[in-house]
């Protein structure tokens, strides 16, 4: 019987064999995978192994050829594949972290309507091409959130070390995120907003999407604490409305934090109709929502060799005033 051999990489270490096999045998349930292991149709280093066997870097996983899809068996390892990830939006990349300048109106996470065009799916395809020999099981993914119409810096993991470190530092607030936003109204001085935010019941149904829901600031003190610092940079007129371009620092990462707090304090994000702002014609102005993740700050001398500061340019249609 012929077997196809796969070599475990660093990020496969200490992963269960059955979890790794799910990637290659996606149509098989766990019960079927255990049956294949008992029959010796899947082996590790030439020997039978249980599903809970912990893989080590360099282990040789052998899978009977007839179990694999024709695409897997006929794949030419020497054939070059083109990554779907545009180099134009790559801000930083090393073996641990990938940071992109997210375009307007591109979803980060996949959905029923994204059809393979979400950033998460695109980055995963790029990873499979560029890191093919690094891991059999590791999947890259976004390390923080950006809404579909928000532009700017978004980080993705490239290995387990990067994913764990970045997630820990986000949780401990040691990674600082700065945004630029266009607010409706004339904000004249710096404001610090400290509020409690909670999800609005049934707001996803009202918005017409199971993947979208709004939040609100709860004046009674219930909800999750949110801290936002807003500094005005310039004022101007846009679509006949007074607007202010602001620099926004958030020290907490709540869903729709900037959007909900801005609206609550009387300065909704321009075009953010979900939170009471006027509607902007995207066909006329290029986009109808103006929130840009402009800067990321990292701890000095960090183990991932990230620079202390990473910035991204403003999108083409983001308004500016002198």
From TrEMBL:
GO terms for molecular function: 23S rRNA pseudouridine(955/2504/2580) synthase activity; RNA binding. It comes from Treponema ruminis. Pfam families: PseudoU_synth_2 (PF00849), S4 (PF01479). Keywords: Isomerase, RNA-binding. The keyword Chloroplast does not apply. Its EC number is 5.4.99.24. SUPFAM superfamilies: Alpha-L RNA-binding motif, Pseudouridine synthase. SMART domains: S4. CDD domains: PseudoU_synth_RluA_like, S4. Residues 15-77 form the RNA-binding S4 domain. One of its GO terms (biological process) is enzyme-directed rRNA pseudouridine synthesis. This is 23S rRNA pseudouridine955/2504/2580 synthase. It comes from the Bacteria. Belongs to the pseudouridine synthase RluA family.
């Amino acid at each position: 019987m012929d077997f196809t051999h796969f070599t475990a990489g660093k990020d496969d270490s200490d992963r269960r064999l059955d979890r790794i096999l799910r990637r290659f045998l996606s149509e098989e349930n766990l019960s079927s995978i255990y049956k294949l292991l008992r029959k010796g149709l899947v082996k590790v280093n030439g020997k039978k192994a249980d599903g809970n066997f912990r893989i080590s870097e360099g282990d040789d996983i052998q899978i009977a050829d007839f179990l694999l899809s024709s695409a897997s068996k006929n794949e030419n390892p020497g054939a070059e594949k083109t990554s779907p990830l545009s180099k134009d939006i790559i801000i930083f990349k090393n073996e641990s972290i990938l940071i992109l300048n997210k375009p307007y109106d591109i979803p980060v996470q996949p959905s029923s309507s994204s059809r393979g065009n979400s950033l998460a799916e695109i980055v995963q395809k790029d990873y499979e091409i560029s890191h093919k020999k690094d891991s059999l099981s590791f999947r890259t993914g976004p390390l923080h959130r950006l809404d579909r119409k928000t532009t700017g810096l978004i980080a993705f993991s490239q290995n387990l070390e990067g994913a764990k470190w970045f997630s820990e530092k986000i949780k401990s607030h040691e990674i600082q995120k700065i945004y630029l936003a266009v607010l409706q109204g004339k904000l004249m001085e710096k404001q610090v907003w400290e509020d409690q935010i909670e999800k609005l019941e049934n707001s996803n149904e009202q918005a017409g999407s199971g993947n979208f829901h709004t939040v609100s600031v709860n004046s009674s003190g219930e909800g999750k604490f949110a801290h936002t610092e807003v500094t005005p940079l310039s004022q101007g007129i846009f679509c006949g409305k007074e607007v202010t371009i602001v620099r926004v620092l958030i020290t907490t990462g709540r869903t729709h934090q900037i959007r909900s707090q801005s609206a609550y304090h009387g300065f909704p994000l321009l075009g953010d109709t979900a939170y009471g702002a006027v509607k902007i014609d995207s066909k006329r102005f290029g986009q109808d929502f103006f929130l840009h993740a402009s800067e990321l700050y990292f701890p000095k001398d960090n183990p991932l060799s990230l620079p202390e500061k990473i910035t991204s340019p403003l999108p083409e249609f983001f308004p500016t005033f002198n």
